[in-house]
Amino acid sequence: MERTSASRLPFIADELGVMRNLVASILAAVGLVACGAKSEPVKAGAIYSVDGGKGYFQVAKVLAVTKMGVHIRLYKNQFESRPASVDVGSLKLGKIQDRDGLGIGHLPLTHRAFAEWRPQYMAASTVQPDELDGYHEWESAQGGYFGSQ
After folding, report:
1. Number of neighbours of residue 49 by Cβ within 10 angstroms
2. Tens digit of pLDDT per residue, the chain (149 long)?
3. Which helix (H) or strand (E) holds 23?
4. CA-to-CA distance for 100 and 78, rounded, in angstroms?
5. How many CA atoms lie within 13 A of 31 on its CB side?
6. Which of 19, 29, 98, 103 has the CA that lies 20 to 30 A from 58?
7. What is the CA radius of gyration of the chain?
8. 134/111 Cα distance (integer angstroms)
9. Minimal CA–CA distance to 119: which of 60, 68, 64?
10. Alpha helices, DSSP H only, in 35-127?
């Protein structure tokens, strides 16, 4: 049996580090595939199902994407299980007096906060000019984002 010399130990440590990184990358890729995550960048107009951690799923529409975060419209519709598709025409924001809840017309989230909602892409749509009213007000006020960077 060949003995490993002390001069080869740094090389072996480097090989182990490479292998560890390779295994971690493979596991991460398998996890993304298993949970149905897409590696595509988030784009304005995209419709996602999201898990806000309240025991139900909701639908979010991306209004804009910036370097700092994702601006969404969160609809009031609630689903017991994650929807694979949705009729966009049936989505409602609701009103403050609605007993079954309400949505949010403009919600600025950090990229991390949006990712924590485990978004799953459902469909592409277009952002209508009136849907950006809250975003433009936020921009004028130099607003911040919800969530940590």
Report:
1. 22
2. 545 455 554 544 445 444 444 433 333 333 334 344 445 789 999 999 999 788 999 999 999 999 999 999 999 999 999 999 999 999 999 998 998 888 999 999 999 999 999 999 999 999 999 999 999 999 999 999 999 98
3. helix 9-34
4. 9
5. 7
6. 29
7. 21
8. 19
9. 60
10. 111-116
Task: State pTM to two decimals.
Answer: 0.73
Distance CA 85, CA 98 (A): 25
DSSP SS3 for 122? strand
The burial class, CB within 10 Å (0-12 / 13-18 / 19+), for 123 is middle
